[in-house]
Amino acid sequence: MQLTTLAKRANTPLLHFLSLGLCLLILTAEPAEKSLLFVSQAQQQNLFEQWSSKYGQAPTTAQQKALLKKEIEDQLLFDQARQRELQNLPVVQARLKQLNKFLASGDQANTVNQPDLSLEFSDPLIRQYMINAMREMLITEALSERKRTRKAIISEPAIADYYQKNLKEFLRADRYQLNHIYVGGLNNDSRQRAQHLFQRVQQHPDAANLGDAFAEGSQLPLLTAKQLLRKLGGDIASMSPSLQLQQWSQPIASSYGYHLLYLVHKQNGTQLALEQVAKKIQQTLQYQLRDQLLVEQIEQLKSHYQIELETEPQPLVTTL
Amino acid sequence: MSKQIASATLLALFASLSINAAEPAFERTEERVPCANYTDNKQPFFGDLHVHTSYSFDSYVSSQRNDPWDAYGYAKGEAITLSDADANQTVEAKIQRPLDFTAITDHGEFLGQIGMCTSDASKLGYWWPHCIMTRSENYYAQLIAMGWWADIGVADTSAVKEKSFACTLSDCDSSGKEFWNNIQQASEDHYDRTEECGFTTFVGYEYTDAPDFKNMHRVVIYRNENVTDMPITTYETGSYNFPKLWSDLREQCIDKDEGCDVMSIPHNSNLAGGLMFPDPKNQEEIDNRRFFEPLFELTQHKGASECRYDRLAGKGLGTTDELCDFEQIKADNLGMLGSVHGETQTDRADSVSIENFAPRNMIRNVLKDGLALEQANGENPFKIGFIGSTDSHSATPGSAEENNYVGHLGRRDSGYRNLQDHFGSNPGGLAVVWAEENSRDSLFNSMRNKETYATSGTRPIVRFFGGRDFTPAMCQSSSMVADAYAAGVPMGGDLSSADLKTEDGSKAPSFLVSALKDAGSPGNPGIDLQRTQIIKGWVDAEGTTHEKVYDIAGGPNSASVNPQTCAPVGQGYTDLCGVWTDPEFDQSQRAFYYVRVLENPSCRWSTLQCQAAGVNPFSKDCSAQAAEQTALAQEGSAFGDVYGSCCINPKDEPFYSPTIQERAWTSPIWYTPESDAKD
């Protein structure tokens, strides 16, 4: 089509009329009314009291905020669930029938077949069913959208990025191979005997055989400080990094008695390679993604609502 | 100088031996990196081989929603969230000390049916009322659903088990397959195959036969990732037929020659009504029992099964051992679980007197009968070692800590309900395996060799060896462990008269018992040891069995607890070591010997929870406190008497005490006269 033809058509009165109408419509259209999410003083008080009875103490300011945030989100999800008619979920219908049957006390059989739908607003279990279903629905929709737009659910670069940012998490700790001379008991006599053995073993390595028998033996396997702590308790784990290779330590207390430690070998900690931990990272990221998508969806939905928290009435200030 | 060189060389040699263990002492059946901490002298690994998650019907129906992945996470020290008494998922649970190994053992029965009922709303079966009630958060709906599950499957007596109608509406088999795959996947995801060997998992499940509530359950543990296509359950074997479990496992696992290896571990013979250890019917049954069942879960949530002594009656079940009053369940069947609002719902939960309690409900009697059967028929079908576990149905492996016990049955024993409805239960125990390294092959190999012991939940370290030439000097020797392995057999082993022969004739066997107290954890020290004991059982020429308990090291003391704080009062021992020679040994008599290690008294879990609720079992005002706290609880969701059990007078009860002595039991060492020795 040539430019001159286009210019001619744009000059028709009909097009002018339609364009003007469209502009007027846009200018005069009222913004859609936002739904109200309202948490009354009584509801707030109820939430805090429930918390207090459960945990035996009043919620802190931060906990109060979290409780209110959750209440608002639940209201939002419940409202969305109703808009999507999730009250038709079989599980909700079954619950409604059950409740109606209970209320009818067996003499009005017809109520069972025609459930009182107002219960769906008041029964906490139904509310929870619908909220949970809505939550899953939002996550599923967001995930489908990502798939539709060919966005990777968990990409390889994301896994590599997580790995780089959390290198410490994938660090293998130093390991120690220790032999030890054990003196049983945590009393003063044991400590002195251990001290005596320490003096002796410096001059006579055979003194290594003079300690008491230890149920796990006198040569311990290669262990991290954390494993040593679990095995022996006491101060041994914290002392391990300062041990000198192939030297006997001073007596160190464990949960059982005193030990002279001989560091046979120390294996320095290593960083695990990405391929060794990629699967684990993928799992972590998947959980994070679900949480993130839900938060995004809820935030997006919040823009369609007017959120109000009833504030405590201010005390009246009077002047005489 | 030369001595110094020699010692240094020796140390270096030890070091190189330990680090470069090229040929392990066990067969490797899987592809994995050897563990860095391999040692020939073995080390104790603490674990739990009996744990349920939301994949089990009785866990899910109790508002427990953690799956196998979550449960393994808990075992490794991660926090999980559990249901409170009102089905709100608000209770944070975290183990104080992570485990070394765990098997998730959900009920094989109903695996597909629970999968159908809980995981896919697009399936018609999901909406079957039984499924809806299973998912319900309503307490009474849950109880009814629980009853239905029990009736259609695990507690009925029929040879052919009925499935839920949900499986007529939809395909439960594919759900079951999916859940079984998930169990394997969770196990793989959490198994540390690196040289760190930080955590080992086993694929497993529970075979759940309890006709008329008589417990014949077994946990089935696979050695590696090669497992049967599906769990073999009572749907395949019918009731009263666990020998078929073994023959099916042989056919579908062992004989397939695809690297599959497996064992089944019976538990709660105390609730079996005498049916757990019947005389074998034929040679195949003897062979299968000995192959598949080297271990027994001696203690767990639903009581201990070592031996039984009724304090009120002043008599025991084939014993005079007064320490056999530990964590006993009054009933002899699974009806003991049926308490609601503090009221038992069935007569089955009533106390059973010593006279009416089947002797083979207790493993010590089973071991003795095994000797008698061997004397009569030539083979001992009951050569069984010991482990403990929790049987948690709250996805909390290893939660056997008295001071950190959140219940084992979802909301049904959460919060106040634990004291109200499960006062007689306990946090359960742990399985301890002496193994070269923390890998599946090493642990499984030691389990098959019975080099294991059970604890009631704490973590003492116990060695037990038997041999000919053990002397008290071994307890002062730094090479005690290596010497004992070289000159004798460890727990779970066998001695014959040939092992005890000398140039001058024959010697009595001697036994080395070495124990270290639980090392505890920062801020939570372990309890001192009180004593170590050897329990001997034997059979005389007439075929009559006997038993005797010997104190080996330490002994009774005056230790107790502070009645206000439960802090320990009085000292015990950090370690105990002794060598004991049987003074009444008769080389012609078959015998077994096992070790029991006792800690000083500590507060029972119930005492700690009663005190936390403001009711002190030691107080003279206990009843008034209980009434006051019960009234408060009733203002919430509680019904009935909630805290009354806190004030039970131990003098009025055959087994209960507000304090307990935590303990460990090693696998036995058996002695067999030479001409009869088969092992």
Tally of helical segments of chain A: 13
Structural class of the helix and strand makeup of chain A?
A: alpha+beta
The dominant shape of chain B is globular
- What strand order characterises the main sheet of chain A? 3-2-5-4
Distance between the termini of chain B: 48 Å
The tally of strands of chain A reads 6
Cα-atom radius of gyration of chain B: 25 Å
| Low-confidence residue ranges of chain B | 1-21
Q: What percentage of amino acids of chain B are in beta strands?
A: 15-25%
Which helices and strands appear, and what pairs or packs with what?
The complex is a heterodimer of chains A (320) and B (679).
Chain A: H1 3-10, H2 13-28, E1 35-39, H3 41-55, H4 61-83, H5 90-104, H6 109-113, H7 119-122, H8 124-148, H9 156-165, E2 175-184, H10 188-203, E3 223-224, H11 225-232, H12 236-239, E4 252-253, E5 257-267, H13 274-302, E6 305-309
Parallel strand pairs in A: 1-6
Antiparallel strand pairs in A: 2-3, 2-5, 4-5
Chain B: H1 2-19, E1 43-48, H2 57-60, H3 68-75, E2 80-83, E3 89-93, E4 101-104, H4 111-119, H5 129-135, H6 139-154, H7 166-169, H8 172-190, E5 200-207, E6 218-222, H9 234-237, H10 242-252, E7 262-266, H11 283-292, E8 295-300, E9 303-304, E10 309-310, E11 315-316, E12 339-340, E13 343-344, H12 363-377, E14 385-388, H13 416-421, E15 430-435, H14 440-448, E16 452-455, E17 461-467, H15 480-487, E18 488-490, E19 494-496, E20 501-502, E21 505-506, E22 510-516, E23 529-539, E24 545-554, E25 560-561, E26 568-569, E27 575-581, E28 591-599, E29 602-603, H16 605-612, H17 622-635, E30 659-660, E31 663-666, E32 669-672
Parallel strand pairs in B: 1-4, 4-5, 8-14, 19-32
Antiparallel strand pairs in B: 1-15, 2-3, 5-6, 6-7, 8-9, 10-11, 12-13, 15-16, 16-31, 17-18, 17-22, 20-21, 22-27, 23-24, 23-28, 25-26, 28-31, 28-32, 29-30
Helix pairs in contact in B: 3-8, 4-5, 4-8, 5-6, 10-11
